[in-house]
Amino acid sequence: MKKILDVISEEMKGAFQRAGYDRELGKVTPSNRPDLCEYQCNGAMAGVKRYKKAPIMIAQEVAGELEGSQVFGSVSAVPPGFLNLKLSSAFLADYLDGMVKNPKFGLEAPEKAKKILIDYGGPNVAKPLHVGHLRSAIIGESIKRIARYAGHEVIGDIHLGDWGLQMGLIITELKEREPDLVYFDDSFTGDYPKEAPFTISELEEIYPAASARSKEDGAYKEKAMEATYKLQNGVRGYRALWEHIICVSVADLKKNYEKLNVEFDLWKGESDVHDLIPQMVEEMKAGGYAYLSEGALVVDVKEETDTKEIPPCMILKSDGASLYNTTDLATIKERMEKIGPDEIIYVVDKRQELYFEQVFRCARKTGLVGTETVLKFLGFGTMNGKDGKPFKTREGGVMRLESLLAEIDEVMYGKIVQNRSVPEEEAKETAQVVALSAVKYGDLSNQASKDYIFDIDRFTSSEGDTGPYILYTLVRIKSILSKYAEAGGEAAAAALRPAEGGPEKGLMLELAGFLGMMENACEETAPHKICAYIYDIANAFNHFYHETKILAEEDAAKKEGWIALLMLTKNILETCIDLLGFSAPERM
Fold first, then answer.
1. What predicted TM-score, i.e. pTM, was given to this entire model?
2. Phi (first) and psi of residue 552, to 5 degrees
3. Residue 419 above 80 pLDDT?
């Protein structure tokens, strides 16, 4: 199906053409004065110089060509030359009926589906997820869902930090505490234990202890660097310990991401490309791209058009060790060779923009990707507390993500049981569903690049621009449809009718914008556009609901038309919240 703005604009362009003017002047936009009209066209104003005629005369001639239009219910030429437009209620009902009858509400498949890889995880193993990981997971998951819904092939990769000095620190600390573990016996040739010699809780204590000690004890840090070297060069016992660390960490990460309703298709890490680095480095040298600078191997990435300094991209340190740059470049190499994506999107902190600019330029310059492959940096802002500073615990430390989610669950549970009697198990399940909507909508309703204040009280409110408000609206619609079914009605068989009242038409107009909104949200990787859309729908529905006695209506045909409208509203809202990564309970 065509977007409704395209359909309306085609009607208007035809009128301009019939009146003797350039049809491209007939572009229609939503009205910036909804109290006066629903849509507007300013083409007559733009045609003044070209046609040397007063804009109101042009507008009046075009309006005359639209008499009897099936699309517009009214067209007014208003000084100095605006065309104020209201849609025909019959046309609008027919358009929505087309949305009902088409898959995905009429959203057309792309002319050429893209293969898109999204990198939106980035946690380090052996460390708990904290609030700093929240935005990458939430935004990346939504972008993945939006692009898939639009018809593209999308692959999500967590890209674990699993190969650097932190591994050596953990192994060194384990050896200090339990030197008799079989993993440290160089003469051992048997099979290592299947069970890890530590739990996730112990592992999460070991790493910070080792990290703190390495900053004060130079000899200890040397041991950790040696352990890292042994691990990366295949020492059996160290590799076996590393596999335990990965296994225990990934199991815990999956549990936490599941609570966020976030899934990854690939659970790859820096270790997966370790063996690709030597060949990649040699190719960069052979191609004349990489050279030594103060002992380090670098690639120049500055361009003549740069207005700011872009430092060289370092490939290897002076001691020959690789860096994040190295593994990120090797990861691009592996992705291009094994997956061949048309686009790679990195959902990361916006403060890493310069770093990724260097990596992207280096990847292009050295031929790791061609000009046809899009490398996209989607930088997100900081999640701040009410003090405007990065979100912390009450004690001032970095808050674990698990703790934050538990706190919001508790707040929602308290609100659910506050004024009503609900079975405890149901209340807890509902609280988790609604709390997730509070967290995700609270984040996604902001443009990704902007910082925002994480305000639990506001985000969990059932009023205003919040996730719970959207869910309350959906639950209200489901309740009406349920009562209609209990009374013997068949909602699925109900047919839309032309709107008779303002609130009804207002809701229909909001719903009709779905295709245009989805196109923008996908092209601009902008989940906040979905949030804004469903907030407008929720407001329009609640206005309609408060002005209309839906189930008490005695005119069966009129009631059926309203039920059909509610069904479409419910289906669109459910689709949109799924794209944002949360769902609605049956009741609240």
1. 0.95
2. -85, -5
3. no
